[in-house]
Amino acid sequence: MVGDSSGLGVERSVERTLGHLRALDTASAEAAERPLTLEDLYRQQRMRMVRLAILLVDDPATAEDVVQEAFTGLYRNWSGLRDAKAAIGYLRTAVVNGSRSVLRRRKTAREYQPPHQADARSAESLAMLTAEHQAVVAALAELPPRQREVLVLRYYGDLSEAEIAEATGVSKGTVKSTASRALDALQRIMRSH
């Protein structure tokens, strides 16, 4: 088990791991000016959205597809958006919804085929993480999709409960209870490894 045995230790591990990944992304995003065009937004937000999708679907190629679809949808709706901040929210919601669709399709496919374990993480992405961070990312992959979404959006996306509720289409109370259950489950998973 990594960290201490309390739920608070697991939460700190999740926060450190996903916060570390968020810091890598925001450092490059903050260096650029606020997005003004779709092209600027694509350059500044693409990798952040890909990392978000990877944390949700656990497959880099699929994550790229999800993000590409999100940007395609944004392009179609560009004229109806208020500002760049609304565009980022649109992208985040589209990535979450696209990831959900992927996971539903995977579940359906598994019902008709024997399950297989895909080697989703690249050696480079894991090499950048410490052993503790690797353990947290591996444990996140074992959580149910909704729990994983809430933790990733909270600690990687650095979103408030209200923003998570909006991105996932659930109530703030559901976000709070899901996060609590997810941290408990994560603690159990990490203890068992």
From TrEMBL:
Keywords: DNA-binding, Sigma factor, Transcription, Transcription regulation. Pfam families: Sigma70_r2, Sigma70_r4_2. It comes from the Bacteria. The keyword DNA-binding applies. Residues 41-107 form the RNA polymerase sigma-70 region domain. Gene3D superfamilies: 1.10.1740.10, Winged helix-like DNA-binding domain superfamily/Winged helix DNA-binding domain (1.10.10.10). Residues 134-186 form the RNA polymerase sigma factor 70 region 4 type domain. InterPro entries: RNA_pol_sigma-70-like (IPR039425), RNA_pol_sigma-70_dom (IPR014284), RNA_pol_sigma-E_actinobac (IPR014325), RNA_pol_sigma70_r2 (IPR007627), RNA_pol_sigma70_r4_t2 (IPR013249), RNA_pol_sigma_r2 (IPR013325), RNA_pol_sigma_r3/r4-like (IPR013324), WH-like_DNA-bd_sf (IPR036388). NCBIfam families: SigE-fam_strep (TIGR02983), sigma70-ECF (TIGR02937). Belongs to the sigma-70 factor family. ECF subfamily. This is SigE family RNA polymerase sigma factor. It comes from Saccharopolyspora erythraea (Streptomyces erythraeus).
